[in-house]
Amino acid sequence: MRKIVIVGGVAGGASAAARLRRLNEQDDITLIERGTYVSFANCGLPYYIGDEIKDRSKLLIQTPELMEERMNINVLTSTEAEKIDKDKQQLLIRSNGQEKVLDYDVLILSTGAKPIEIPVEGKEQNHVFTLRNIPDMDKIKSYIKDKSVKTATVVGGGFIGLEMVENLHALGIKVSLFELGDQVMPGVDPEMAAPLHEHLVQQGVDLRLKQSITTIDKSTVTTNTNETLPADMVIMAIGVMPESTLAEEAGLELGIKKAIRTDEVFQTSDANIYAIGDVAEVTHKISEQPTHIPLAWIANRQGRLLADHLNGKTFEPLKPLGTVVAKVFDLNVASTGLNEKTLTQLGKKYHVIHVSGQSNATYYPGATPMTIKVIFSPDGQIYGAQIVGRKGVDKRIDLIASAMTFNQSVIDLQKIEIAYAPPFSSAKDPVNMAGYIAENVLNDAMKMMQYDEAEAYSQLIDVREPIEYEMGTIGSAKNIPLGTLRERLDELDKSEPVAIFCQVGQRGYNAARILKNNGFDVINVDGGYKLYKQVNASPQTKTVAQKESKEEGEEVKENRRFIEASGLQCPGPILKVKENMDEMQDGEQLEIHVTDFGFCTDIDAWAKATGNTVISNQTENGKVKAVVQKGKSLPVNVMDDSQGHQLVETKNGATMVVFSGDLDKALASFIIATGAASYGKEVTMFFTFWGLNVIKKPGMKAAKEGLDKAFSQMMPKHAGKLPISKMNMGGMGARMIRHVMNKKKVDSLETMIEKAQSMGIKMVACTMSMDIMAISKEELIDGVEYGGVATYLGDTEKSNLNLFI
C-alpha cells in the first residue's frame, strides 16, 4: 500500500485521485484543498455571474462527501499545504489553526495558478475583485446585487476578462475594458483580433487598447492618460501565474514563469514528487520548447496519465497544442498551435493563408461567415490555426487540432471527410478549402502576399465590382472587375509583377490564374480587401444604433421594405440594398438582416458614398439589422443660437461636373470655382471624360499599347494644349485667346489650377472615366483625389450650387 498525497482538488488533482482509485483499491489517497470546494467548473464562473447559468450547484462537479463515500479518498478541505520535507517525505499542513504532518510515498502537486497582480493604487478596496474560484464568484455576484452596480471596469483582455465583460454587460452594467497591449486575445494574431475589437464596440463596450488604470477610487478609476471613468466595481483579469510557492520553497526546479519543471511522466526534480495542471511546465508539440499553458483539458489529461504511470502503464508523452475557444458576445474565437509572433521569435519560416467560409450551406437559413487562418511550414507541417466567426468555429478548430495531433500535413486537410448536410456544413467545408489553397501555395507555385504588403506594388489591381470598389480599396489600386480582366490585359505591364485582390480571395485566385496563364508574374493578396479593412479600420467608432441622440426625422417607419440577406457574402447584401433602393422613392425605408457582422461598417460606408441615410444599424440575435432611408433625411441642420432662436444652417457648397476638355469652358469652370471659394463656399470639381485632359500633368508620358495608345495620341497632352470650343482653327484660336489673356493680365489656365488648389478646392478625377479614356493616375497633376459618382453626389448634398460644364 502506497501513501499518495495530492495537493490541489480541482481539475488535475481531482482527475488524478479518481483515476488512481479506479486503478488500485489498495492505495491510501489523501486529497488536500485549501478552499471549501473540490472539482468545480471554474470555466463556468463568469456565466453564473451573468445569469447565463442559473443553477449554482451545477458548477460543483464533485463534492468532498461523494469522493470519500464512493471512492474511499480522504478529502481535506479548507486545508493549507505549508511545507514539503523532501528528505523525510513529509508534508506539513494547517487546518483550523492546527498543524499536522502527513507522510507520503508519492506527492502530487496540482496547486493551479494565481492571478497576476500589478501595482495599482487602491486595488485593496472591497469593490476590486479577481475570479479564480467559487468564493470569488459568490462575492462578485453578491456585490453586484447588493450595491446595484451600474458601471464596471475590467482590466485585461484575455479569456477571463472578455468573459466577464460579456456577462457584466448582460446584467445591464456599462463596462470599460482596459488592455495594455494593442489587441485582446493575445494568443491570436492582430488581424484575427480586429473583428473582436469592432464587435466589442458595436455591443457598447468602452474598449481601451494600449491603456491602463493607475488609481482605483471608491466609484471611479483614473487612466494612464489622466482620464477619470465611473466604476462601481473593478475586475482584475490580467492573467495568471503558476502557484508554485510551495515547490519553490522545497527547492524543486522551476522553469517558464516559475512553473514546476517536469519530465515526460510529470516527475519533478525530486523522484517522489510529481506536478500537473496549471502549476506545471509542459513541452509544446510544435515548438518542442517548454512553456506554460493553463488549460483545463491539459490538467485533466495529465491527471489521468499520471495515475496510469503510477500503476505501471505506459503512454505517449503528452505534448499539448494549446487549443482554445472563447465566446465574445455573438462572435467565437479559437486557436491552436503557434501564432506568427511566436514562430518569428523561434526563427521558423512559414506560409500563411486566410480562408473565408460559411458555417453551413449558404442556401440554408442561418449560414454565418467565418475566417480561418492557417500557418504552415514550407514542407507542409501545420504550425497553427486561428478562427473567428459565429457558428461552427469549435468544430473547425477541433478538426485542425486533430490533424496536428496526428501529424497530418496542411494538404491533408482537403482529405478530411466532413459530415455534410445543409444545416451543418457546406459541400466544400472551409477546412477542406484551407487544404486546397495550401496545396496551391506549396505545389502549384501560386504566390501569396499578406494584407500589409500590397500597397508597395505599383501594379495593384482590385478585381471586385465597381460598387465594392467605390466603398473602399487598398491604396491606389486600379479597378478591373474579374469579368472584364481578359479584355483588359493590355492595360497591364508584363515586365512588372501584378498584385491582385478581391473581397476575400476567391475572385483574386481566379484572376491570378488568368494572369499567370497569360504570362504575368502575379501575386494574390491573401484574405482580400475584407482582411485589409478589418485590420485598418478603427474600432473606436460607434454604430448608428449607438448614437446618443438622433436627428429630427430619423425614425424607423412601419411600412418599410424588408430583405433577408442572411448567409450572403459581401458584396451580396450591399447589392441587394442597391437593387431595392433603385426601385424606391426618396424617404422610403429598407430593412435588411445580414449574418456577416462586417456589414455594420459596410452599410454605413455605402450610405455615405451614395447619399442615403442609415436610420438604425445594430447587431441583435446574431444578425446585423439595418434600416436605410433613401436620400438624406434632413436637408438642413437645426440648432439654437445664444438667444434660444432656431437657426437654419443653409447649404454652403458648390459642385460642378467638368465634362468638357475645351480651353474656354475649362477657364469658365476655374473662374467660377475660385470665385465661389472666395465667398467661403466648399467647392468640389468632378472631372470626367474629356474634362480629365484639363488636369493632366505636363511632360508625363505613359507607356500604352493598342487602342489606348491611339486614344491617348488624339487627346490633348495637358491644360496648355487644350483647344477652344469655337473657331479653334487647328490650334490657332487657342493660341490667340491665350495671347489676349496674357495681354489683359488674366491668369493662364495653369495658374488658375494652381490657385484653385491653394484655395483648398477639391478636385476629383472620375476613376471609371479614367479607365475608359486610358488615363492613369501618374498622368494627372498632384493633389487630385480619385472617386466615383458616389463621391460627387455626396458633396452635392451639401451644395446650393451645382453646374455641368
**Largest sheet entry:** 5 strands, parallel
* SS field, number of helical segments: 22
Helicity, in percent? 25-40%
* Strand portion: 15-25%
Number of distinct beta strands: 41
Structural class computed from helices and strand pairing: alpha/beta
Instruction: Sum up the overall morphology in one term.
Output: elongated
By CATH, the architecture of the largest domain is named 3-Layer(bba) Sandwich
| CATH third-level topology of the largest domain | FAD/NAD(P)-binding domain
> What is the typical, i.e. mean, pLDDT?
88
What does this structure look like?
With 805 residues, the protein is an alpha/beta fold. The chain has 6 domains: 3-114 and 242-310, FAD/NAD(P)-binding domain (3-Layer(bba) Sandwich), CATH 3.50.50.60; 117-238, FAD/NAD(P)-binding domain (3-Layer(bba) Sandwich), CATH 3.50.50.60; 330-446, FAD/NAD(P)-binding domain, CATH 3.50.50.60; 455-536, Oxidized Rhodanese, domain 1 (3-Layer(aba) Sandwich), CATH 3.40.250.10; 555-629, Translation Initiation Factor IF3 (2-Layer Sandwich); 653-804, Hypothetical Protein Ychn, Chain: A (3-Layer(aba) Sandwich), CATH 3.40.1260.10. The chain contains 22 helices and 41 strands. It has a 5-stranded parallel sheet with strand order 3-2-1-7-18. The longest helix is centred in the last third of the chain and has 16 residues, at 663-678. The chain is elongated, with a radius of gyration of 33 Å. 43% of the residues are buried. Belongs to the class-III pyridine nucleotide-disulfide oxidoreductase family. One of its GO terms (molecular function) is oxidoreductase activity. Keywords: FAD, Flavoprotein, Oxidoreductase, Redox-active center.
